[in-house]
């Protein structure tokens, strides 16, 4: 319903009451603002009661206003330009207590992710990764930070990880051209969704690879190509994508895979610690330096 919400409102417009038409016009013209308004606030803006707003949601087939609001928010996140994001977030956040508002919003996104994430899909993704012949990881723009983080730790565990270079669209396909049913590709995409990621996952799916999608909702364009769907709630904080919940999900994925491969992980990090120490990769604290001096004595 989300994708066709605005057209649905337009088609039903002649059947609405006068008050519902006021709501419909406001949503069609300002859906990016309506998405973050309470029923009471929306009713006040258009000059109708809160109960009229609730009935309007029911007319569209929703059980209540919160479901309509959720659909509007999903529609909004996938469509807004950076400039529109700034305008919307300014209205939502105001200019006071920004720190508390943003952090509380992130906390709420993690809670929703915990409540709604499919454990079957998560466990299936972990097993697919552990048993894969090759693991491809793809994330573009802001999602590239998540892809790099995941790739860093998976390279500690496996020797068959490919972090896909996304400099150009053609290079993406050159890197995954040999992907097959024994492989796994992990695609990470959040609004505004990357066309490059969508096309790459469709390519991988067509060739029988297991596709793990890390994204924000069922209307995400990479959701349809996924064998395992890992939904992490994201949000926009001004022009910035808030990806705290997706990063937390990725942390959980790394830990779960690490536990499945604990002997391998132990051996890897034992070797790495010796190398890091021998070549001075990390700065030592004062306590560590004192300990070394005592050992020399």
UniProtKB/TrEMBL annotation:
* HTH rpiR-type domain residues: 3-79
Record-linked InterPro entries = Homeodomain-like_sf, HTH_RpiR, RpiR-like, RpiR-like_SIS, SIS_dom, SIS_dom_sf, WH-like_DNA-bd_sf
Known CDD domains for this protein? SIS_RpiR
Q: Does the keyword Methyltransferase apply?
A: no
Please state every residue range assigned to the domain named SIS: 125-264
Any Pfam family hit: SIS
Question: Keywords of this protein's UniProt record, alphabetized?
Answer: DNA-binding, Transcription, Transcription regulation
- Source taxon at top rank: Bacteria
Q: Which GO terms describe its molecular function?
A: carbohydrate derivative binding; DNA binding; DNA-binding transcription factor activity
Entry-linked PROSITE patterns? HTH_RPIR, SIS
Listed GO biological process terms: carbohydrate derivative metabolic process
Q: Which Gene3D superfamilies match?
A: Glucose-6-phosphate isomerase like protein, domain 1, Winged helix-like DNA-binding domain superfamily/Winged helix DNA-binding domain
Q: What is this protein called?
A: RpiR family transcriptional regulator
The species this protein belongs to is: [Clostridium] cellulosi
């Amino acid at each position: 319903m989300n994708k066709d919400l605005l057209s649905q409102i337009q088609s039903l417009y002649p059947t609405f009451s006068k008050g519902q038409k006021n709501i419909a016009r406001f949503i069609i013209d300002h859906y990016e603002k309506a998405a973050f308004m309470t029923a009471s606030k929306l009713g006040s803006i258009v000059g109708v009661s809160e109960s009229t707003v609730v009935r309007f949601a029911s007319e569209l087939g929703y059980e209540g206003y919160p479901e309509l609001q959720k659909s509007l928010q999903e529609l909004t996140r996938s469509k807004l330009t950076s400039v529109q994001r700034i305008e919307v977030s300014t209205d939502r956040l105001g200019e006071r207590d920004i720190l508390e508002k943003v952090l509380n919003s992130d906390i709420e996104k993690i809670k929703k992710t915990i409540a709604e994430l499919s454990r079957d899909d998560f466990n299936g993704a972990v097993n697919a990764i552990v048993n894969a012949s090759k693991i491809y990881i793809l994330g573009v723009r802001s999602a590239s930070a998540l892809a790099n983080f995941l790739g860093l730790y998976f390279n500690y565990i496996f020797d068959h990880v490919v972090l896909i270079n996304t400099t150009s669209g053609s290079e993406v396909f050159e890197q995954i051209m040999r992907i097959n049913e024994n492989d796994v590709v992990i695609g990470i995409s959040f609004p505004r969704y990357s066309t490059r990621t969508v096309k790459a996952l469709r390519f991988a799916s067509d060739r029988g690879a297991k596709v793990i999608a890390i994204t924000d909702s069922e209307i995400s364009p990479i959701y349809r190509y996924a064998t395992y769907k890992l939904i992490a709630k994201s949000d926009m904080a001004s022009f910035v994508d808030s990806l705290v919940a997706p990063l937390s999900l990725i942390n959980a994925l790394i830990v779960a895979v690490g536990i499945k491969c604990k002997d391998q992980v132990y051996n890897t990090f034992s070797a790495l610690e010796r190398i890091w120490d021998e070549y001075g990769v990390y700065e030592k604290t004062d306590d560590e330096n004192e300990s070394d001096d005592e050992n020399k004595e």
